[in-house]
Amino acid sequence: MTAIPHIPVAEFTYELPDEKIALFPLSERDQSRLLVWNKGEITENIFSDITEIIPERSMLVFNNTRVIHARLFFRRETGSRIEIFCLEPHSPSDYQLSFQNTGTVEWKCLVGNAKKWKQGILEKKVMVGEEIVNLKARMIERSGNAFVIRFCWDQPVHFSQIIENAGNIAIPPYLNREAEASDNQRYQTMYAKVDGSVAAPTAGLHFTDAVMARLAKRKVKSAELTLHVGAGTFQPVKSETIAGHEMHTETVVVARSFIHDLLNHKGKVIAVGTTSVRSLESMYWLGAKLPQMSDVEPQHVYQWEPYHLTSEVSTYESLMNLLHWMDQIQADQISFSTSIIIVPGYRFRIIDGMVTNFHQPQSTLLLLVGAFLGNDWRKVYEYALRNDFRFLSYGDSNLYLR
Q1: Residues 79, 144: one domain?
Q2: What pLDDT score does 291 carry?
């Protein structure tokens, strides 16, 4: 049994000048620079060259979540502007059901200028195709630092259509600018399918159809899962040690066919993005604890669970446990939540490599990188800063292999 790591967060900081942060993406997705760390050796390429660097017969795991237009702006009769930032569905709590609803849904939301909206209904008109839809928002209750908001509308259109036409995409706060029309396309991966994220899985922004086609020619398999990225991904670590940080929760959806692909795959498994890393490793822990569960439907992987569970279960056994569970509940996919935190000292069960961008100082994402690279994370970041790599969401890419 491993104790909760009391790692000083200050050990995972570095100086990030503003001019190193990419405010806008490059004109061509796959022309960003690529830093490759392979068993301790650092080399530099263009991202499109990744097709020659990924080992043949590897499996690349992509997060196919789609970023929604989560920021909704309303005006009160007094003129006050109220921002409603949709975080996750409350009723119905299932993403797919919520987006398919016609008429009313409830979402957990952050509310900007909430003190100006203590009661009453906010209204706005939304154009959906050729229909004018009257959208109303009512505050139902407080939920932690957020609120449950009930949305109602008067035309038979899905909530996915409402939010797509009424809202704005939420680009990262550290870009310090308003979203532009180009962000609707560029802050979205080319393989995005499943509505639900409020932030993009940005490691995937570099991939193009041409890159994917060349990877397929080298017998690199592509597989997909879904993790809906929450606003908590930008939550700073404020505690002195990582043990004091409360990790955010996100929803993961995995298909039976994906688990079969993992079981049958003989090459390296390379996660595209930290969200795919967290999904894959959470899958392992979900399967590992299934035999000890009295409830046949475990719903959550807890933050420090990997550091507490004492039994050693092989990856094969864990994945088979998940398939047996799906047989029991007669499901072709499983949906669960995870607040797993991956920090130095963690032993990776599924992944052999990852594609990721450069992350903010003292962030949980940087600690995840430190868990994979060990002390070499600092060597990688110092190299990138010396050689003018572009940082954060719209910045350059990394490939880590071991």
Answers
A1: yes
A2: 76
